[in-house]
Amino acid sequence: MTDPAAPDATSAPPPKHDPPRRNFFAEVASVLIGGLVGLVPLAAGIAFFMDPLLRKRSSMRGQTEDGYLPVAKLSDLPTDGTPLRFSIIADKIDAWNLFKQQTIGTVYLRNIAGNVIAFNDVCPHLGCKIDYKSSNKSFFCPCHASAFALDGKKTNPIPPRDMDGLTVRVTDGEVWVKYQNFKRGCAEQIALQ
Amino acid sequence: MNALLNWLDNRTGYKHLMQEALYEPIPGGARWRYVWGSTLTFVFSVQVITGFFLWSAYSPSTQSAWESVNYIQNEMAYGWLVRGIHHFAAQAMMILLALHFFQVIIDGAYKAPREINFWMGLVLLQIVLGLSLTGYLLPWDQKGYYATQVATNIAGVTPVIGSQIQQIAQGGSTYGHQTLTRFFALHAGVLPTLLVVFLAIHIAVFRRHGITVPKHAMDKPAAMFWPDQVLKDAIACLAVLATILFFVVYKGAELSSPADPAEAYSAPRPEWYFLFLFRFLKFEEIDKLGLAFGAIYIPGMVFTIIALMPFIGKWKLGHRFNVAFSFGLLLGAAYLTGLAIIEDQADPDYRAAVAEAHRDSQRAVELTRREEGAPPQGALALLKTDPLTQGPRLFARHCSSCHRYDGHDGTGRLIIVTEGEGEHKTTTPVPPQAPDLGKFGTRDWAKEVLVNYHELFAPLKNLTLENKNIGERFLAGDMANWVTENKAALTDPANADDLKALAEFLVQQTGRKDLEPVDATLADAGKAVFSTGKLKNGALSSSCADCHDPGNGAPLLVGYGSKDWLKRFVLNPGHADFYGDNNAMVPFEGKLSDRELQLLLDWMTGDYYRAEKAAAH
Which member of A99, B63, B138, B584 lies 3.0 to 4.6 Å from B378 by CB, making a disulfide possible if both were Cys? Predict the structure, then answer.
């Protein structure tokens, strides 16, 4: 070789042609094995990424066995049925951490002549927090103007369903709520967990 | 289908690209020795893939790095697999780098016109070492933390700019949040990008010059890269992957306990591929020349010689020198690695430290698996408040100069003195001066006190100075004499139940949960023996109560061995309720903080969290 910097390939003899059968076998084997070695780490990674679907974990702790949490004293509620917002306090589980006694959500409570009803204050449309407008005694979502009557019925076509009611239990003057969140953006009420 | 592919080709020219990439003629035919570069590229791709997924679950801060890695490893679906592949592929890369390097050196592939590509390879080597170093810290476990401390401190002794480099790398003068964010940015961003760039250049330049064909293969028929060499490469990659998976399944990626700046990791060793450098720095002769000499100048010189190999190779015997030099390095590194391993294996302190580190890591995982999870300030707090972790350490620090715990110092280390050096090194156990407390408060302990008193308290003979008399008095005192008088009666098979009952009664006094269930009927029978001294067959020379009732001069046994009794005893063993004038033990009043004392007592009385699984057996 006179010039060491010249590419060797140019001086290489033209390749001989192997019988096509053997080439075909080598090609198939290469594709299969090459595919396999690439796929194994990728498949492992994707399976790992699917963890939220594969492993169900609860996001809170501290509720009773049937899912109730204490929210307020009955005496804290106005007796004329005006909605008041209350915090739901429980232990919040966030991946590897457990944060004790955190506000994990907020609800509206109404005392209608001794009968207590509760609404999750998350808008069923797209998950913003619904405000209570005392001026016109109705619920209103500041994001996309979903509006609801005091009984939670939707009053315009923006939200796909009524406000999400929550089951309530009153024991010894204490109001307990079965706190749940529901899938947003659909007409049916589907509990998230 | 063909029409679609043609449409695509018209717009992208992919066919030409594929042609370029795959239809490369290989003079002399496909060979197994050409696979190393491909396997390295493959393993790097594996690291990119698994690395991206790990990234999606990793949290770089001192309070969440270990916690998130532990979560990946032990809680998330297939986390052990993804992290395991990433962990062992990193090590496979080191071996493949070495193989690739040796193949290049032996085949003379570093020579003109391939000098530049050889240097590109050396740059890639440095980037991979950088990735390995930065990745090692990210789990923020004891092992990674202290191994990386060594590396950044070595960077710190670089002449002139050392301390600046160290501070920039650490994000401050000490390790903290910013060390992790910086290392993570390097590990997942900067270094992989550089690696991709240099790898692209490396491969492009390689393609320009083609493979370096060994002389004996020159006259063999050429073959195409596709599919002949690709098949060999693919099989090699499969073998590499299989090896990695083997280690993932049978060994698993390690995670030691959370990094603790306040507590030295007593078994600090770098990863195996850096062991030779670690051992090299330990030579006294090297140490004397200063850290910069051994850790920077020598490796720098070696690396310079390697970088100059293309020029050295031009000389008559240059190639032989290069090959000999490389193998010399390999042998030297292998020797030093072997030496480090053999020395460590022969060192009982090191082995105990490894066992302790292993226990700590298991315990940390066990504690985070409780319903409470890891506290927001980090999992380290769990270990700091865990009696099972801290008790043995406190025992070793405060008690083991006189007592032993199942023959060791509580943490598993033997108490020995080492004399001499090298082959003349001898180790002798230090005699204890007080009883072994490994079984303290248990049924076995109670029986030992009653029938094997002399053996149990024999270490008191080793007391010295002003305590010498006390030790002798103890072993010839009332209790010692009582045991001599009553041993035969208590070990009489006919009285076996009475001995058992006495032990049960004493264990009942401890109130310890870990010794439950206590047989109340048996304990009542024991109480009767305690106060009357009557046995099934005969009677004790005097009852226990004769001496141990309040005011009778011997230690009070009400609540004996309970946490409260033990606390009062440890704080002031010379109190009239305990040994009074006969006391030889140091009073610990003011020597331990309340927290330390509590941890020690909780551990000694078995009051600590046990995982469900452990409770079952």
Answer: B63
**Residue A26: which of B78, B85, B227 has the nearest Cβ?**
B227
Cβ atoms A100, A159 nearer than 8 A: no
pLDDT at res. A5 = 44
What whole-number distance in Å separates Cα of residue B476 and Cα of residue B547? 16
A98, A60 Cβ separation under 8 angstroms? no
Query: Do B26 and B228 meet the contact criterion of CB atoms below 8 Å apart?
Result: yes
B79 and A51 within 8 Å at the Cβ level: the answer is yes
- Of B178, B142, B175, which is closest to residue B156 (Cα–Cα)? B175
Interface check for A133 against chain B (CB to CB < 8 A): the answer is: no
pLDDT (0 to 100) of residue B472: 79
Q: CB-based contact (8 Å) between A43 and chain B? A: no
The whole-number pLDDT of residue B617 equals 36
Helices B115-137 and B298-307, axial angle in degrees (round to 10) = 150
pLDDT tens track for A48-88 = 999 999 998 888 888 899 889 999 999 999 988 999 999 99
Confidence of residue B492 (pLDDT cuts 50, 70, 90): confident
Q: Do the beta carbons of residue B339 and residue B279 sit within 8 Å? A: yes
User: Is the Cβ pair A34, B230 closer than 8 Å?
Assistant: yes
Instruction: Identify the pLDDT of residue B150.
Output: 87
How many Å apart are CA B471 and CA B580, to the nearest integer?
14
For the record, the structure tokens of B221 come out as: 């028929």
Cα of first residue to Cα of last residue in chain B, in angstroms, is 65
pLDDT digits (tens, 9 = 90+) for B354-394: 888 889 999 999 999 888 888 888 999 999 999 999 999 99
Task: Work out the minimum CA distance from B58 to partner chain A, whole angstroms.
Answer: 11
Q: Does A44 sit within 8 Å of B81, measured CB to CB?
A: yes
Say what percent of chain B tops pLDDT 70: 99
How far apart are the C-alpha atoms of B328 and B317, rounded to whole Å? 16
Per-residue pLDDT of B286-296, as tens digits, reads: 888 888 888 88
SS (H, E, C) A65-133: CCCEEEEEEHHHCCCECCCEEEEEEEEEEECCEEEEEEEEEEEEEEEECCEEEEEECECCCCCCECEEE
Helix axes B478-491, B496-510, angle to 10 degrees: 130
User: How far is it, in rounded angstroms, from Cα B14 to Cα B521?
Assistant: 88
The region of weakest confidence among B84-88, B338-342, B532-536, B603-607 is: B532-536
CA atoms within a 13 Å half-sphere pointing along the CA-CB vector of B510: 26
Chain A residues in contact with B81 (beta carbon < 8 A): 44, 47-48
For residues A73 and A63, is the Cβ–Cβ distance under 8 A?
no
Range 311-350 of B in CB contact (< 8 A) with A: none
- The verdict on A51 touching B (C-beta cutoff 8 Å) is yes
pLDDT at B167 over 70: yes
Q: Which residues contact B428 (CB under 8 A, 6 or more apart)?
A: B416, B417, B419
CB atoms inside a 10 Å sphere around CB B464? 8
Q: Name residues of chain A where pLDDT drops below 70.
A: 1-22
Instruction: Indicate the pTM of the whole model.
Output: 0.88
- The residues, ordered by sequence, that sit 6+ positions from A153 with a Cβ below 8 Å of its Cβ are A162
The answer to whether residue A134 neighbours chain B at the CB level (below 8 Å) is no
Residue in B closest to A100 by C-alpha? B372
Torsion B2-B3-B5-B6 (CA) sign: positive
